[in-house]
Amino acid sequence: MSVSVLSVDGPILNISRVSRLHMGAYLCIASNGIPPSVSKRILLIVHFPPMIWIQNQLVGAMEGEEMTLECNSEAYPKSINYWTREKGDIIVHGPKYEPELLDNAYKVHMKLTIHFVSPSDFGAYKCVSKNSLGDTDGTIKVYRKFCVSVFLNGRFDVSRINMNIYWYQFITI
């Protein structure tokens, strides 16, 4: 793993069109050729409204399973993050739902575990992120996966895999 460091000579560091990608620590080192050099660490903080991205926007589940939905948010100042159902009802921690937030500076990884998926759990879920500069949300749709039973060699084989079923009509000529 290599690290590259941008170095600028002079008393001024000018960052044009600053964005959230510029956030972080900057080190200024002053030297006149006579030891010791003097350094100052400057922390640049950029305020920006929440942004959300979701890797899997369509997720399948079978009844009785446990499943976890995931959503990522970035915002500064720190955002308020929560999950809702499609009608806007906020999801709270309980025996059915387990929301979890993993914070890392201005980034939040949101998880929602659904225990014992039932028919009422299919539909849309929203991860919501709000701060003083704005708000946004992302939607994940949960659909029903079916369990397929196949009669093989005199036994029923219950298969929990996704499969396509094709029907063909054979015509004798």
Automatic annotation (TrEMBL):
- UniProt-listed InterPro entries: Ig-like_dom (IPR007110), Ig-like_dom_sf (IPR036179), Ig-like_fold (IPR013783), Ig_sub (IPR003599), Neural/epithelial_adhesion (IPR051170)
What transmembrane ranges does the database entry give?
none
Q: Which SUPFAM superfamilies match?
A: Immunoglobulin
Q: Which residues form a coiled coil?
A: none
Alphabetically list the UniProt keywords: Disulfide bond, Immunoglobulin domain, Repeat
Q: Mind telling me which Pfam families this protein's record contains?
A: Ig_3
Q: Identify the residues that the record assigns to the Ig-like domain, covering every copy.
A: 49-143
| Keyword Repeat in annotation | yes
Q: Does the keyword Disulfide bond apply?
A: yes
Q: Which domain of life is it from?
A: Eukaryota
**Sorted alphabetically, which PANTHER family does this protein's record hold?**
CTX-RELATED TYPE I TRANSMEMBRANE PROTEIN, DPR-INTERACTING PROTEIN THETA
Q: What is this protein called?
A: Ig-like domain-containing protein
Please tell me the species this chain comes from: Ranatra chinensis
Record lineage: Eukaryota, Metazoa, Ecdysozoa, Arthropoda, Hexapoda
